[in-house]
Design goal:
There is one protein chain. This protein is α+β, with helices and mostly antiparallel strands. Helix content is 22%, strand content 24%. A 4-stranded mixed β-sheet has the order 3-4-6-5. A two-stranded antiparallel sheet has the order 1-2. A two-stranded antiparallel sheet has the order 7-8. The longest helix has 18 residues.
């Protein structure tokens, strides 16, 4: 990773900036209140190791939540008044990471689904000017089968649609939706011919 934010590609439509997300968002390369829509898929807590960064390697659940909140606060500052923010994060069951890597606590206890994405989003709606508009389900067809004997297979992740101003934000449902039973849904994650495959995969293991 570059030691400071650096533009590595730019044309009339695109600008790609390499650098730490907090430094990039705080730099002159990203204008305050200048972004229409932001979307992020954050490093999941203790899911994998990323090169040259401590993101996702926090020692406690609170440290991870605080870092996510700090990042989302920085994103909030660069979004336009009528802009939107999509937040994606995966959840985790307590007790699945060695104690020496992730400290056990009331949230990270054996078998407890920690509701990490929800904890971030609730803090954003409680403490920031974000309003939660939708929770969209992202069905992950290539999700690895998990070997939990007494849990349902987890084949989806949430996408949280947040805005700065609930009374004035850009949203064109006709452009992103598909018709279902005469109404426009935000998106369709299961095509009719995939329905049987989906039912077969959603079984108890």
């Amino acid at each position: 990773m570059a030691s400071r934010p650096e533009v590595i590609f730019e044309d009339s439509w695109t600008r790609i900036i390499n650098g730490d997300v907090l430094e990039v968002l705080g730099s002159s390369l990203v204008p305050v209140s200048g972004i229409q829509m932001a979307m992020t898929s954050v490093p999941y807590l203790r899911q994998r190791k990323y090169i040259d960064t401590a993101w996702g390697q926090e020692a406690t659940v609170k440290e991870w939540l605080d870092r996510m909140y700090e990042m989302c606060t920085a994103i909030q500052k660069v979004i336009k008044p009528n802009g939107a923010f999509w937040f994606n994060a995966g959840d985790k069951w307590g007790g699945t990471v060695p104690k020496k890597e992730l400290t056990p606590d009331r949230v990270n206890r054996q078998g407890n689904l920690m509701m990490l994405p929800e904890r971030v989003v609730m803090r954003l709606t409680d403490e920031q000017r974000f309003t939660l508009i939708n929770k969209v389900i992202w069905w992950k067809r290539n999700r690895a089968v998990q070997s939990f004997p007494k849990k349902f297979i987890d084949m989806w992740e949430p996408l949280y649609f947040l805005v700065k101003n609930a009374d004035n934000y850009k949203f064109n449902r006709a452009e992103v939706g598909v018709e279902t039973r005469g109404e426009m849904a935000v998106m369709s994650l299961i095509e009719p011919d995939e329905d049987q495959e989906f039912k077969e995969q959603m079984t108890l293991h």
